[in-house]
Amino acid sequence: MVELTLPKNSKVIKGKVWPKPDGAANLREYRIYRWSPDDAENPRLDTFYVDVDDCGPMILDGLLWVKDNIDPTLTLRRSCREGICGSCAMNINGANTLACTKGMDECGKGNIAVHPLPHQPVVKDLVTDLSKFYEQHAEIQPFLQSNDNPAAEHSQTPGEREKLDGLYECILCASCSTSCPSYWWNGDKGDENEYLGPAALLQAYRWLQDSRDDERNARLDMLEDNFKLYRCHTIMNCTQVCPKGLNPAEAIAGIKRMLVERSR
Amino acid sequence: MSQKGTAHFIFQRGTALVMIPLVIWFVIALISHADDTRPELMVWIAKPWTALPLGLLILAGFFHMRLGIEILIDDYIHKPDTRGMLLFLNTLFALILGAVALWSIIAITLIV
User: Fold this and answer.
1) pLDDT at residue number B1
2) Could you tell me what percent of chain A has a pLDDT over 90?
């Protein structure tokens, strides 16, 4: 059976409340998930008070302010701080998104809860191990496979190129896949009966739609599987949370449509 | 073992589509026959224009049920042996229930 409750050592306990910074007029309360592999402690939610007059407006700015001014051991991934690299994907107030493009003002008036991406092994604090996610991306062979060998580039009409809009922009932040209940249950079982998840399937559809690619049938053969593809039950969390505004659910429906048309 | 899922996908939607008019008809018919006595109801069921759609509803309904429960088993039961056994029992359950329901209609048409 799937695990419906957390193991004992994964239960999140109340953490430390760090003191408010001196002289700060405008504070924002952050509750941040903390866990370290270096001790046997359970994960905990630490409370920090961020001086919003002393940092930028985004959630990531607040996290970096905490790291710089309160607790330098707070661990998180970040790089571009402008929604391009996908490194700072995390669960903010219950929804996966990028900390760098989510404003504190978008999080209401209350405290801001920051957790790592759900259902992934935690490396430390807000950093998760996405190895499986990348393996699944590799499985769909996300590269051009063409029998043509043109002297210059592979050409496309503007219409053919337009078909890739809304697909190629994925930054592999894993927000979609790790928000999907089907992916939680069937994404990492360790056997061949695994769901690929919305991110990998969005990219699979991107290559299925590419007019230059000659492996459409082989790609569809690989995807035609009860578990790899058909664990998607159109829950739509993926589309709801995608920080780039993409629609993986529609792409998955597109793959299913192609398979139905092929089976006629 | 890798299993293809497109046929399952098509059948699930196909049976759902077939059931939309049949369920509407069935609900309206049930309401309009709510005050019937048992013999009156049996006479109604034995009519070809009742028995035929009712049989179709039973076939589509139990097939759809089998397909739906199969998804639940695939989603939540991870041990291959247990899953295989439950999938078999699911099919058996749907077959037995469907057969009993169909036989009931045939029996009524023979009796009346």
Assistant:
1) 38
2) 93
